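PROTEIN–LIGAND DATA SHEET

This sheet pairs a single protein chain with one bound small molecule, glutathione, given as SMILES. Inputs appear in the order they were entered. The predicted three-dimensional arrangement of chain and ligand is reported afterwards as a token string under its own label.
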Amino acid sequence: MRSQLRKSKQWRYSLSVSYFVPLGKADQARPALNMPPYTITYFAVRGRCGAMRIMLADQGQEWKEVVVNFEDWMKGDLKATCVFGQLPKIQDGDLELFQSNAILRHLGRNHGAYGSNNKEAAQIDMMNDGVEDLRLKYAKLIYQEYDTGKEQYIKDLPSHLSKFEAVIAKNKSGFLVGDKVSFADYSLFEVLLNHQVLCPACLDTLPALKAFVAMMSARPKIKAFLDSDDYKKLPINGNGKQ
Ligand SMILES: N[C@@H](CCC(=O)N[C@@H](CS)C(=O)NCC(=O)O)C(=O)O
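PREDICTION REPORTED AS:
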């Protein structure tokens, strides 16, 4: 652990998102929690932090990253401190949180991206669980079946994506639920970006999803983040496949 702490000084860097938001504005958005900014601890990939980073950028938040390299992770000291033995972890003041979807929900609550009432919150949970199902299929392809399963995965993809297409087409706001962005939108958006790398034409027959990706990509803070080196330098997945 001592070596982990010592080295973490070198690994710690800010994603330098200061141009995204003045801290004062972030304080107003989170009166109860009183900044400091969030700290994300994770590996040098987008992986399970892709959606939360996009969300933080869009919400005008500053955050720090502790980047863990694989060799140090394998020593096991940090792993032993993780509730489920895995990353990502987010630190928000004295709250230390694991599980990427719990983190998204927490950020959703903090930043008003969890619907306008309980009914919308329940629908957002449902949609996010649907995104998680897709994310797990994608992860299985990437980490277990890339060479043998890619063709079939791409064949099956329209049937999975069409479920999200129907929901967005029905909800005239362009978002998954209600009339404002939610954490589930960020998660869906990020997973769709990854799928467009896997299969660039995958949204061609899905106009509502295509418009959704265009709308999310054009949000100024998201656009600035996606254009940044901090975002571009990270591979999508830990094994280099995409
Ligand atoms: N359900 C967890 C999954 C976390 C997970 O799979 N973490 C991987 C990296 S993406 C990890 O820590 N792998 C290292 C290990 O298991 O030792 C979440 O959503 O956060």
